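Subject: complex prediction, re-run

Hi both,

The earlier run crashed halfway through, so I resubmitted it with identical inputs.
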Amino acid sequence: MTDTKRDNLSAEQLERALDRMVEDVHATSDEEILKEATEVYGSADAAVARVQGALAAALKRSGQKKLEQARAGLRTARNAKTTSNVVELPVADKRKILDTFAGNNNPIRDKLTMAARNGVPIGEAEIDGMLEDLIELGAIDQQGNPV
Amino acid sequence: MSKSGSRALTREEFIEAYTALSKAAQVKLLRAAEILAFKTNMSGDDLLQEAVVRTIDGERNCPAGMPLTTFLYGAMRSIADGERKSLAREGAKVGLEVLAEVGAEPASPGRNAEEAMIAADDFSARGTALLDLFADDEQALMVVMGDLDEIPAEELRQMVGLDKTGFATVRKRIRRKLADAYPNGWKA
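This time it finished cleanly. Structure:
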């Protein structure tokens, strides 16, 4: 009756046939589909429970996904903090990094010069603060290398 | 805003509309999910859940004013098509590995052609499986073959020689048998 060759069916043919079945479900009267639900699922309520179950499961998955994203964000933030290795370097190395920038960065040069002029050695906490500022400004990376 | 430019339902509006669907609409949704699952390797319930999760996560937008069931049919169809295509790629990969094992040379310029060939075989196998399901039900087989050949519904009904009620009964039998035979999608 039709031209269908059972061993040479295309994806498009199959999709069209399935789509038509869906269209048919959509066109079925409410009364008929409820009757069908009783035959297939035992009751329409059983089908409703599954459809609402899909929503409940989707909400749970969505919540878990958000939680996972938040955790990943936190991990990234923590990693960023812990990879700020520059402050872990010996003081002499940290000074060297600052000296490199002192040549072409006025505020840093002024601070270092002022400290030298007053004979007050610049403290490590202050050095760390300046290095953190340089990282924030994007002038050096977490390891103290010029960017 | 949805792709069409109209306002999209918010997450809360979508959940509210979904919860408020009539019993009949929910049954239709489940039946449709079970049919479309044949394109995938997941169950109808999982396919529906996937469509819902993508909507509440904002990956898909339901235009305000569009019937929710219409939107969800479309979302499930699109997910199923994506899933089918990725399964086809997987199948093609496995097929190529088999070709390599038996010593065939999958030359790279011909790779796409081979993948397409293997994917086509997979779709063809599904179609054949669909027809096999109705080997002992001539009316259902004729309707499925007519659907595969895209014969207009009314013409098909007349060809099968059924009245509207009888035709609807055959269609009901088809979707029931399909859902029963493949509760977890294709070959899952």
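Chain A has six helices and no strands.

- K.
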